[in-house]
Structures are given as C-alpha cells and as structure tokens.
Amino acid sequence: MTPIALTIAGSDSSGGAGVQADLKTFSALGVYGASVITAVTAQNTRAVRAIHAVPAGVVQAQIEAVLSDLAVGAIKIGMLWQRDIVEIVATELTRWQQIRVVLDPVMVASSGAHLLAADAREALRRLLCPRALIITPNLAEAAALLEAPVARSEEEMQEQGRRLLALGPKAVLVKGGHGEGPQSVDFLIEPGASTRLPASRVAARNSHGTGCTLSAAIAAGLANGSNLADAVRSAKAFVTAALAAADRLEIGSGSGPVHQFHASW
C-alpha cells in the first residue's frame, strides 16, 4: 500500500515553510502527501505580510474529505492560527481515531510574525497536546507552552520536556536548533526516558522551514512504518542534510528555504 501522510497547516506563498515544505518533505521521503489548509499567508523570505484564516467549517470539510477516503498513516499539524480551528482539528482527530499525530506547535515565524492567536494557545495545550503522539517545540515554543523562561542548558531543556510530557502527549522532542554552541542538540523525552540527539550545528544563510521540515519528516517516517524513535532520528538526519545543502539554493533576498530535495538536485 502506498504510504500516505497528511499535513494540517498554513500555506506559505513563498513555498519555504508550512504546507508547501511539508509536501516537499513527504515527497522527498517517498510518501504521498495530502493537505488541509488552515490559513493562507502572504509571505516571502523576508516577512509575513498578511494572514487569512480558512473558516473552521472548511477546515473540517477538508479533513473529512481526506480521512473518509485516503488511508492516512500519519498526520503532521502545524500552523492553526485561531482557537476555533484548534478545536475543530481536535474534534476530527478523535472522530477519525487518528493516533499517529505529530504536533508542531507553530507560534512565531522565523521573521518574528505571530502565527497562533493568544486565545488559541490554551486550547492547543488542552485539546491537541493530549491527542499527539509527539510534539516538537523549539526552545521558544516550549517556554511559551509552559509560560516559563527559555531553557538555557541541556538540563533545563530536559526539565521542560518532562513538564510538556505532563500535558498528555506520548513523547516530546525539544529542539535545540535555536541554541548556541558547536552542536545542535535535541532531546526526545518519553515516560521514564530522555534521549540526547546531537548534530553538528550548520551555519546556513537559508533556514526557512526547518521546523516544518523536521516534523513532516517524522510524520513521513511514521507513515512508512518506522517506530517513533527511528522516525525522529531519521528526520533529524534529513533536516540536517537539508539545512547543510540550503545555501545551494538562491531563493529570495532574505532567509531562503532549506533544501528538501538535496539528494535529487
């Protein structure tokens, strides 16, 4: 059977992040990608200029159309933007009994634009975190979810990961890409276990879509039949290679996208 993954996220008009990055990642990893658009953004490599939310009823209709017909093996959730969209996505995950859910708690774009309304943050914590197989916050997102200072050490990253685990997901991947030092260290936190995942830090000019690509790659691994730990390790290796190859691309005048198709062209 053809492996299928679904992305539920916002559209990036520049193609570097969001649904576009997810579909590229699925394709690069041999997975058929379906999509549900939650918001349309007007953005490029320099800034997010406008955001238009898709009505919650249309988001619901998209999810129903896909899940009633396609044998989806995993779902990646990214930008949701509004509270009513968070609520409808949570309802549909339960309705369709989807459990291989990778939740990327997208809150702020790399350009600094807010991508999750303030009143949606509590709903995401309460309704979606417990329905996720894994959540994948970066340092700032982990701090925002916990209403805590940003972690400054590996010990604090692990402690925040354990606190996020208490929100209900089966696992938490605390990403250290926005940290400092020669290594980019992530921590996979599971009940009773913490796995350190280091990689050499890549100094790339182009880094747009890094978080989207990582969470989509985890979903692709799950759709392909990998267990969670293997999917996370493979995804980190993939995004590290995509980031290392990113500066081969000449896209826009700001921070361009990572190179999901680095192995092909």
What would you say this structure looks like, in words?
There is one protein chain. With 265 residues, the protein is of the alpha/beta class. It has one domain (4-149, 207-248): UDP-N-acetylmuramoyl-L-alanine:D-glutamate ligase (3-Layer(aba) Sandwich), CATH 3.40.1190.20. Helices cover 37% and strands 21% of the residues. It contains 8 helices and 9 strands. It has helices at 18-28, 56-67, 83-95, 118-128, 139-146, 154-165, 210-223, 228-244; strands spanning 4-12, 32-43, 48-53, 74-77, 101-103, 134-135, 171-174, 183-190, 193-200. Strands 3-2-1-4-5-6-7-8-9 form a 9-stranded mixed beta sheet, with helices on both faces. A hairpin with a 4-residue loop joins strand 2 and strand 3 (48-53). It starts with a strand and ends in a 21-residue tail after the last helix. The model has no long low-confidence stretch (mean pLDDT 95).
Helix content range:
25-40%
- Which parts are unreliable, with pLDDT below 50 for 5 consecutive residues or more? none
How much β-strand is present in the residues?
A: 15-25%
Number of domains: 1
The helix-strand sequence is EHEEHEHEHEHHEEEHH
Radius of gyration: 17 Å
Structural class: alpha/beta
